Amino acid sequence: MVSWGIRYAASLDGIITVLSGMSSLSQMEENLSFMRDFMPLTDEEQTVIRRAQDALNKGTSIPCTSCHYCVEGCPMSIPIPEIFAVANRQHKNEGFRQVREYNIATIGKGKASDCVQCGQCESACPQHLGIIDYLKQCAEHFEK
Ligand code: SF4
Ligand code: SF4
């Protein structure tokens, strides 16, 4: 998945540099391994990606990448990405209420309903997610 992601970006017209977040030497070595002799995505691979995009766009899952940039400054210590991960699993399971997983994810931390809407998390989120609204939905779903 990593190589496809970077090769997808590098295959776009006009791209001369792809910035990839890396947090270890092994990740850097992995990135270098498929960029050293770069091969753009083939037409067949592009088709697979378009099909995956279509499948993902049909869902209503929260497009959180779990980067955790939003978490550090939250005054209520709400585990935002973990809550969204539970919500997304709930979506995939088509209605099975993952209340137990939600309760485990929030043990000793803030609940979705504890959000005071300060907006810190939204200004930190590189995906520009409407975190406050998503948390309201999660509170409604998992805490009622
Ligand atoms: S808006 Fe809510 S979730 Fe976001 S930082 Fe403030 S209290 Fe935390
Ligand atoms: S900053 Fe945005 S994308 Fe990153 S973990 Fe938080 S909600 Fe998810």
Low-confidence stretches: none
Helix coverage percent = 40-55%
Terminal CA distance: 37 Å
The global form is elongated
Rg over CA atoms, rounded to whole Å, is 18 Å
Spell out the helices and strands N to C: HHHHHHH
Number of helices: 7
Main sheet record = none
Bound compounds: iron/sulfur cluster
- Give the percentage of residues in beta strands: under 5%
Number of strands: 0
Mean pLDDT over the full residue set: 91
Q: Structural class per helix/strand content?
A: mainly alpha
Count of folded domains: 2
Description:
The chain is mostly helical and 144 residues long. It folds into two domains: 2-58, no CATH class; 80-142, no CATH class. It contains seven helices and no strands. It has helices spanning 2-11, 25-35, 43-58, 80-92, 99-105, 120-124, 131-142. Helix 1 packs across helix 2 (25-35) and helix 4 packs across helix 7 (131-142). It binds iron/sulfur cluster (2 copies).
Short structural description:
This protein has 144 residues and is an all-alpha fold.
Give structural attributes:
binds iron/sulfur cluster; mainly alpha; 144 residues; 2 domains; 7 helices; elongated
Layout of helices and strands:
Blueprint: H1 2-11, H2 25-35, H3 43-58, H4 80-92, H5 99-105, H6 120-124, H7 131-142
Helix pairs in contact: 1-2, 4-7
The structure holds iron/sulfur cluster (2 copies).
One iron/sulfur cluster binds at residues 64-70, 80-81, 124-125, 127, 129, 131.
